[in-house]
Amino acid sequence: MPTGVTVVTSGTGEAVHGMTVSSFTTLSLAPPLVSFSVRTGARIRGPIEATGAFVVNLLAAEQEQLARWFADPDRPTGAAGFRDGVRTSEAPGGGLLLSGAVGYFACRLDRIVEAGDHVIVIGAVERCRTLRPAAVPALVFADGGFHAVGPRLPG
Question: Are strands 3-4 and 6-10 parallel, antiparallel or unpaired?
Fold first, then answer.
């Protein structure tokens, strides 16, 4: 099953953290809610709980290396994890917007639900925006690898 590839960011200053997440989904339209799941001990949980906010960056197809970087559990923690070449801007409330992303959802933490060895993070969408033209392909993960998905075909 193909899934979109996102990088979730949270925290501020030196305590900022980012993590590749492919379990992102919209949950509700009224109120607007989104969710994703991560291992119970995932490092992103601390900054999300500390700030009460997070940003879901929807990656473009050319950002595969960025997805791989933020999926690496051995990368540096905190602000050092945003290596050279990762251009960002701060999102109000906590978290970073990644330059080149297709779009983003800036969320306030609604709740964290324990589910086996994972947690489901639910966020109330405060802002969302498309940052690139619709013709820019999005990054998806399917059949054990990354792929590009372009705009919907006419008809």
Answer: unpaired
pTM surpassing 0.85?
yes
- Note whether 146 and 27 are within 8 A (CB): no
- Six token digits for residue 73: 């559990």
Q: Are 102 and 60 in contact (CB under 8 A)?
A: yes
For residue 34, how many other CB atoms are within 10 A of its CB?
21
Q: Are strands 118-130 and 32-39 parallel, antiparallel or unpaired?
A: antiparallel
> Token digits for 20?
């590749």
Helix H segments across 21-76? Answer: 45-51, 64-71
Strands 6-10 and 32-39: unpaired
Distance CA 28, CA 39 (A): 23
**Residue range 88-114, pLDDT digits in tens:** 888 877 789 999 999 999 999 999 999
Question: Helix (H) and strand (E) counts for the chain?
Answer: 2, 12
